[in-house]
Amino acid sequence: MDQTIKHAIIRGETSLGIEFGSTRIKAVLIDYNFETISSSSYEWENQLIDGYWTYDLNEVINGLQETYHQLQQEIENNYGITLQKIGSIGCSAMMQGYIALDQAGELLVPFRTWRNATTGTAASELTEKFQFKIPQRWSIAHLYQAILNDEEHVTNIGYITTLSGYIHWLLSGSKALGMGDASGMFPIDKSTQQYSEDMINQFAELIADKDYPWNLKDILPNVYTAGEHAGYLNEAGARLLDPSGSLQAGIPLCPPEGDAGTGMVATNSVKKGTGNISVGTSIFAMIVLDKDISVYPEIDIVTTPDGSPVGMVLANNCSSDINAWVGLFRECYEAMGLKPDMNQLFSVLFNKALEADADGGGLLSYGYYSGENITGLSKGRPLFVRSPESRFNLANFMRVHLFTAFAALRLGMDILTQKEQVTINRILAHGGLFKTPLVGQKMCAAALNVPVSVISTAGEGGAWGMAILASYMVNKEQDEGLADFLTTKVFNDAEGQEVYPDSADVDGFALFMERYTEGLAIEQAAVDHFVENWKK
Fold it and tell me: Which InterPro entries match (predicted)?
């Protein structure tokens, strides 16, 4: 047993990051050297109910408590002590979406996640009005679409927030949001680092005839910059997080953030000119800009947690279809009476992709579990297509599914690099797809034609990044910026592995992209003609 760590836990010289991802809720407790002391997770999944992708907020609470309980148990087992003190806590979650509460804090409509592609009219009208790209997943697009739809709940709104802001509010009573997540609720004015007053006034003009009993500014969370205190764990929050009663209240909470912000922190990508890519249910790249760029449907402008503008390319779909196919291979194993090791199964299948034809053998796949904003598909239809001449084998099958995970992202990245001449020297990557050494990096390097680095913390992901933000709040020196804190303290001796693009892979991905763009008509036909609920 490490007595130093034990004493740090007892004294509360720790930071806890909790992140609500698309498929997992994860908690990571770190020490003052930013090393992971303990981690835990809870599996969950979204549901398509009445046309909306959602999560039951009761499961949000159950998952929060179960994740913390696992962490608590692991610490007790490893160190023989009960977790009572924590130096700081931070909450993170899937970016944006729409949680609408009334004045009493009751949920008005089921949580509408980032995954919904139901706000096209609102997003388009607001983009035109503001002359600023408003993506469909942004909270303001969800709110305005509800207004356009004359939804009854809008009149009763007392507060709207994101999932990270909701968890933070439950724990602290503070209506706060970190700037990175807030910049996806409503546009941020980079000069004031608050919501754009001009656009708030424009929105007020747009809905003036509705005569709602609220104004937008009053129902949005307050915006906080990384490093600021954003509230304290109150008694109700402590009991919510830890029903056993062991955890003490009064712990400072840092501003809650979206998974994009924690991904930037986890990959040391908050300085201008740096970039990172995060893969999971969705996939997104974040490039910290050093200049203004034009408005494009494929590019979102958000901020780092400390307020620098970021060009964001987000595709709604990434790993869900890959996971489904691996699940099918698992069933085949089990049907033969075997019990597969899932880590080994992923590793074997991913490594087969390295043996494939450079272009994937003429195969084609779309992992569209939901609508895809970049390619303009309104609904999800996972699709695999081949011709009689295609080279259909396991290696090509796996390569094409890994290629398609990056394909929609590539379309958006081309705009940044070719139209706006944004230079990307390398990409720092994190997420489950990169856990198998080299394979995901090689596919990503081929797709983006840039070197791709994965650092040793990549497996911990956003929950670790959230813990770092919590630690920064209480451990930074006076006037120490986030970028300097990360570079000089957190990542000063971080180990990583960089993979450069292979010319054959780059050429192969280019051939695949020709097939991918031509085949979008097939995907659209699947949306149009493959009905969602077959009659029994």
Answer: ATPase_NBD (IPR043129), FGGY_C (IPR018485), FGGY_Carb_Kinase (IPR050406), FGGY_N (IPR018484)
Q: Which backbone phi and psi does 413 adopt, to 5 degrees?
A: -65, -30
CB atoms within 10 A of CB 12: 15
Q: What is the pLDDT of residue 536?
A: 44
Whether residue 17 lies inside any domain: the answer is no
How many Å apart are CA 104 and CA 13, to the nearest integer? 36
Domain encompassing residue 366 = 320-407+502-529
| 11 CB-contact burial (10 Å; exposed 0-12 / middle 13-18 / buried 19+) | exposed
Residue 435's pLDDT band (cuts 50, 70, 90): confident
C-alpha span between 318 and 385 (Å, rounded): 18
Q: Please indicate, yes or no, if residue 35 is contained in any of the structural domains.
A: no
Q: What single letter denotes the amino acid at residue 21? A: G
Asked if 171 and 104 count as a contact pair (C-beta separation under 8 A), the reply is no
Whether 34 and 470 have beta carbons less than 8 Å apart is answered as no
What is the DSSP track for 63-81? Answer: HHHHHHHHHHHHHHHHHS-
Give the H or E element holding residue 286: strand 283-288
State the Cα angle at 304 between 300 and 306, rounded to 5°. 145
Chain centroid to Cα 123, Å, comes to: 20
- Are the C-beta atoms of 5 and 31 separated by less than 8 Å? yes
Which tokens is 223 given? 């915006």
CA distance to 346, 452, 463, per residue, from 430 (Å): 17, 10, 12
Helices (H), 80-162: 120-130, 139-148
Place of tokens 């230079």: 423
Judged against a pLDDT cut of 70, whether residue 534 lies above it is answered with no
Asked whether residue 192 is domain-assigned, the answer is no
Q: Which residues contact 198 (CB under 8 A, 6 or more apart)?
A: 189
Say if 303 falls within a structural domain.
no
Distances in Å between the Cα of 361 and the Cα atoms of 157, 396, 519, 522 are: 53, 6, 15, 19
Biggest CA-to-CA distance, the chain: 66
**C-alpha to C-alpha distance for 44 and 370, rounded to whole angstroms:** 17
pLDDT digits (tens, 9 = 90+) for 4-60: 999 999 999 999 999 999 889 999 999 999 999 999 999 999 998 998 999 999 999
Cβ neighbours of residue 507 closer than 8 Å, sequence gap 6 or more = 358, 359
Digit-coded pLDDT (tens) for 379-397: 899 999 999 999 999 999 9
Nearest in space to 5 (alpha carbons), one of 41, 28, 36: 36
d(CA 160, CA 277): 28
Q: Round to whole Å and give the CA distance between 4 and 203.
A: 54
Cβ atoms of residues 419 and 408 within 8 Å: no
Question: What's the whole-number mean pLDDT along residues 396-412?
Answer: 97
- Closest-CA residue to 172 (of 71, 254, 262, 87): 254
Vertex 357, ends 351 and 359: CA angle to 5°?
105
Looking at this protein, which amino acid is placed at residue 343?
A: N
Number of domains in the chain: 1
Residue 205 burial (CB count, 10 A)? 9
